[in-house]
Specification:
Dihydrofolate Reductase, subunit A; eight-stranded mixed β-sheet; two-stranded antiparallel sheet; 5 helices; 10 strands; about 20% helix
C-alpha cells in the first residue's frame, strides 16, 4: 500500500495557519538561500494528498506550485471548482484515507505527500503516516489552526534527525513507530 509522508512548517506555538487560514507569517519566513530539504522531499513522492482548505489556499498563490499529481479530499467541491489549467494535474476524491491509499497503490503510487491540518490528522488516526518532517518557524502567532488534533491513541515517534538553519528554522524528522516498538 502507498505510504503517507508529512513535510510541514508550524509556528513555534504549534499552528499551521491563523484562525482564518492565513499563512502570511509563514511567507515572511521564506529564505531563498537556505535548503530546508523540500525539493529532495518532493522528488521522493509520487504525488500529494491535500484537503479542500489547503487547495483553496494554494489557488490564491500567483503560480501553481506543484509538478506532481494532486488529490484533493473534499465532500463539497465538484469538478467545476478545479480551474481548467489544473484539470490534468488535480482530481477530487471523497474516499476515506485507507481506501484512497489502496487506490493510489493500484495506480502505482508508493509515497504520498499528505498535507493540510485535517487531512494530516485523519491519516494519523488511520495509521497511514510513515514519517513526519516538522519545521518550527521562529514566530509565535498566539492562536490559529493546530497541526495535531485529538487522537484516539498515542502515536509513538522515533527521532531521526534535527537540523537548524541560520534563519532560526529548526527541522526535525520522525518515523512513526508501530505498536510494540517496531518502526514503520
Amino acid at each position: 500500500m502507498t505510504t503517507g509522508h508529512i513535510f510541514i512548517a508550524v509556528s513555534l506555538d504549534g499552528f499551521i495557519a491563523r484562525q482564518d487560514g492565513d499563512i502570511d507569517w509563514l511567507m515572511k519566513q521564506q529564505t531563498a538561500d537556505e535548503d530546508h530539504g523540500y525539493d529532495a522531499f518532493m522528488a521522493s513522492v509520487d504525488g500529494l494528498i491535500i484537503g479542500r482548505g489547503s487547495f483553496e489556499k494554494v489557488l490564491s498563490f500567483d503560480d501553481w506550485p506543484y509538478h506532481k499529481p494532486v488529490v484533493v479530499l473534499s465532500r463539497t467541491l465538484s469538478d467545476a471548482d478545479i480551474p481548467g489549467e489544473l484539470r490534468n494535474k488535480v482530481r477530487l476524491s471523497s474516499l476515506e484515507p485507507g481506501e484512497l491509499m489502496r487506490e493510489l497503490g493500484h495506480e502505482g503510487w508508493q509515497r504520498a505527500y499528505v498535507d493540510g491540518g485535517k487531512v494530516i490528522q485523519s491519516f494519523l488516526r488511520a495509521g497511514l503516516i510513515s514519517d513526519i518532517t516538522l519545521t518550527h518557524i521562529p514566530i509565535l502567532i498566539g492562536q490559529g489552526l493546530p497541526l495535531f488534533g485529538g487522537l484516539d491513541r498515542d502515536v509513538d515517534l522515533e527521532h531521526r534527525e534535527t537540523r537548524s538553519f541560520p534563519s532560526g528554522l529548526v527541522s526535525s524528522t520522525y518515523r512513526i513507530r508501530e505498536t510494540g516498538g517496531q518502526t514503520r
